[in-house]
Design brief:
Beta-Lactamase
Length: about 700
Amino acid sequence: MSKKKGKIRLTDFIQKQAFRGTILISVIFCALIFPILFLYLLKISQQEVLALATKLERNWSNTVEYFGKLLNVVSTQTNSFQDREKTLSLLRQIYENLSPLVAYPAFGRADGKMFSYPPYDYGPAYDPRERPWYRAAIENPKHYVVVDPFVHAILNESAIAIAKAVLDENGEVIGVIGLDLVASRLAEGLLVENSYIMDESGQIVAKRGTIKGTFKPQLGTEKRILSHLDGWVGYVAIASVGRTYIVLEYSAIRQIIVSLTISLSIFGSLFATNVLALKKVQKKMKENVVEPLQNVAMMLKEHQIGKNPTFGKIETEVDELRLVVERFSEMIRTTNLQFEELQISYNKELHLKKAQQALLDITEKYLQGAKIEQMYQFLLEKAIEAIPKAQGGSVLLRKNDSYIFVAAVGYDLKKLSKVSFPVEDVTSWVGGKASIRKKNDVISYERHLDEESIDTLRKVGRLDEVKCSLNFIVEVEGKTVILFNIDNFEDEDAFDVETLELARLFASHLGILFTKAKLEEKIEEQQRMMEYLSSHDPLTGLANRRMFEEYGEKILSLARRQNKKVAVMFLDLSKFKRVNDTFGHDFGDEVLRVIGGRLERNVRQVDLLSRFGGDEFVLLVYDCDEECAKNLAERLIRLIEEPIELSGGEQIEISGNVGIAFYPEDGEELDQLIRAADVAMYHAKRNGALLAFFQGETSNPS
């Protein structure tokens, strides 16, 4: 068929109508759905940023609250603030246990004196009562207070002060104890990339990653959550403790690109669907048009004699139809390639979003109070869900000089926990801080393990089945603490560089979990220490006055029910002041520790021995009469009089005096018995006797 003006050939008509249909459907979809889809995805992205910022603020406020609760416990130990030595001893313990998170714990006394550790000369003009932290604590004495961020005068870096008033038993102010929290060190394991903590003035207190701009808080606003867009940089700020803001910076252009990419991917999917429909049209056209025409042409050639122009026209039409088919086929191949590229891009963004959601789930679970052992397993499970082609994995934690399995997916963790790896030369068989290892080099540590461990790994650890593996070394403060592995059992090329980077996100989060767990362990240890110090004398380890009074009342209640006699002995060291004046308070403290140890080793477990302060000890002895008390007092005095050899080589001798009172003859209340024993002790000292029984205000020396 020759081409004539005003006529449309069948092949042209089919080709044009097919393209017009595809383009028309795609344009209508784009015009109607694309803007809605784009705005919806952009909104989801912004909500994810807000959710992450909220979790960061919660972590920050919880961490500050930990230290506030510690001060609440410390402030109840009023005996520790009675003199300079006790105060400095307590501050030193706080510093040694909480450094470097806490710098220069301090105590400002109500008389204006200031103590800190390490000791610092504040100068004669310094009065802690004029400082903001002191005044804030006095205004709210029953609770700890968080003071606005400031630049630490000694460290020259941002800090946040927490303070708590210390009150005596009558509610009078003894002073205020304060902790300076070093913000940068405190926030090190809490912040994520492109986030920071700032105060109301806009000063950055702590940050992580590169900050492209600085969010300016709106002073005076009552809004807790603020958002701002400066060019292509967006900010979400949440007000937190101590008039600080947790700020998360994000790229608005990246959010737009991600939303556009996903929207275009979906658009490309629809276009590909239309192309698949065209492929069916192509097949039907070939079956119903091209092949019949080819058969007609062949039959005419075989049965007609001579040349007939019509035959040529028929063959021409067949050739034209073939050309249309070839053009359609080429178009389909090109479209398929484009669709595959779009699908790859879409899958990549999908995996990133899945990983981000997994990390948010991990953070949320940990904030809900899950134990760290559960978190290692939960993180591993989430990582395998999010990482393409991941089928198994393990987490190994360093304990002492070896690594042990603490989490596993695809393996028997209970049996694997019996296998441990040596610490030395770990990078030589793991393959660097991050690596992709294939079947040929996965098994590279036989020389580091014994035969039994290798056999366990082959049976339980599927050592011979691993085809490809992602391996990470997680370091904290320059020390390797965790080994993280993701495995595939089917394909040696399962993992690539993009997968490695995706898995690195989970490896980094393992480091954050480890750091936070260690911090909480340290805080819990400090809390236990504070609880111990609230009931024990920090110098001798004996019960303090508070514990003596609490348990003494219980012993007296038991004695009332069982009709038993209880002896209360008040023991005072003689010549002890001369020890302090001659050798110094450090030697005096050593003497008290030695005496306390001797006394403790020579009383029954059912008896209650306490250091009341200074050089005074009080002993409560259950079911003890006059003869029992006299023999015990004489034995304790002999122990005190034994020579004491100090660490410097000096040898000293001291003695003691004991006053004794009995329940119920000398009093039925504990404070009455303590006072009676104290009166008897002074009568013994005044009369030159070693011990005396209480007999009213004039006791009987023995």
